[in-house]
Amino acid sequence: MLNFAARQTGRFALGLLGAMVLAAAISAIAAPRAPGLGPFLQAAGLRLWAFVQFDFGKSAISGFAAIDELGRRVPATLALVLAGGGVALIVGAPLGLLFGAGPIRRAAAPLMQIVTAAPVFCAGLALAYGAVHLLHWPVSVNAAAAASEPIFSRSPQALEFAALPVLTVGLAGAAAVQLALRRAATESARETFRAGLKHMGLSALEIEWVYAVPQVIAGLLASAGEIVLALLSAAVVAEWVFHRAGAADLFVKSVALQDWNMTALILFIFAGLAFLADFLGRVGAYALVNEGKT
Amino acid sequence: MSDLGTTSDTAPMLRAALRLIGWSGLGLIAVAVALSDFLAHAPAGAAGIGPMLAAPSSAYPLGTDLLGRDVLSETLHGLSVTVGHALVAALVAIAVGGLLGAVAARLPRLAGLTLRGTMGVLAAIPALLLAILAIGLSARLYAPLAAGLAAAPLAFVRAYDRVEGQSGSTYAEYARATGIAVATLLRRDLTYEFRGTLATVAARALAAVTIILSTVSFLGFGATPPARDLGLMIAAAKANFFHAWWAGAFPAFALIVLILCARLAAGLDEGERP
Fold it and tell me: Which domains does chain A have, with CATH numbers?
């Protein structure tokens, strides 16, 4: 376990370092320098050194320190991703477990292809249309009415504003969750230990519960990085469609207005989140499977 | 979670039928794209063809949009632009992702690992954000190239890991022992990597890059008028979406059908990522 954890820690650290180098290179675009590759690399090196000292430069749009600007926006995106992640687990886990089983799996494969063929922005607009016409919610996809409403709030109106972006992100995450579970279930179904355990006299339920379920959950944990990537990607679209002032929305605006310091910092944070989820998921999966064996 | 052995031979037959449906759908889309100028009632971007935001009727089967453009004609032209851009992007994704990944696995270990690490970092960033960044650094004109490059890291990592896994195989050991040149071994790997699967890989890449391309266009980073793609059409319809759904819904339907056909053609199995 220690060896595995150490390897994964090294992988995580290298990943973060790589993401920081990439962010420094993007940030160097904004740095004043002479033209040519040499000056660019020099500027990137200087930006990397500044990053190590937690100096992420200033936002070209607001003039504030990029880290402060991001600090104002990140909580909204994290809340959206967390709430969306909750929806993803609630919707995706039962679907994945149900569709991961025997004959249903065969029928579910094309069905899931159809459901997941809709891009996130199409799903978001369809949800908005349904909310307006069926539930008569005060949804707008053309005004910043909801921008200041927090995701976690007790106000009923705030809930109505927050529900659609959370559902949009959640459904995109649910597709990733059910896929991870079905993939793990497929791999588990191919394991040779099943026949051996059956000969040892274990019932099918015991085999599933004691051996297969931990493997499937470990498969889900091992895909945590991919699931977080799906959630972050959906958050970009959801914040844009529903006018929520989060970090993902800020990324789109930063690129459009060529605010490279801000762009670099957001990319670094997002890559860091994906690496962290991947690291924790892999270690958790390893611990779970090994715990089951001992 | 039960065993796979209980399934009959219907599964491969069903899969083959779905693939056939997918390829047939892509074929029909290709015909519609090739004949789009002939099938469309109006040229691309022609405003004032009908009244503003007219609902679907016999005169305008899919209605008109805010500028009085015929939605059927615009959807056909938009589909044509989307498919054209997606084909370029898919080629880039296959070349830079799958092909380069397989080649990198046969490079000297340090060079291969450096490339694998770099692509691993890029694969940890959502492809949508990578595409937006690449367009921001270049121009909207290069959106197909950017979408292909954004989809490439994941394909690169998969191809690298698959070919790298074969390095320890018996045939590779024999090949090295008998002094077969690295280039010959690489050619063999590439043949095995893509022989018989190129169509599947292409369909899979087409589905992935179509989603990226339409999303970046929806966000305002992709196609530019008058060559509007489906993503840009849906973005333009957003302003009146709640009372004139047809201007956005029909382009969205065309987009979903395109992605679905590509996915079915790729024969994506359970537990497989698009």
Answer: 2-293 (1.10.3720.10)
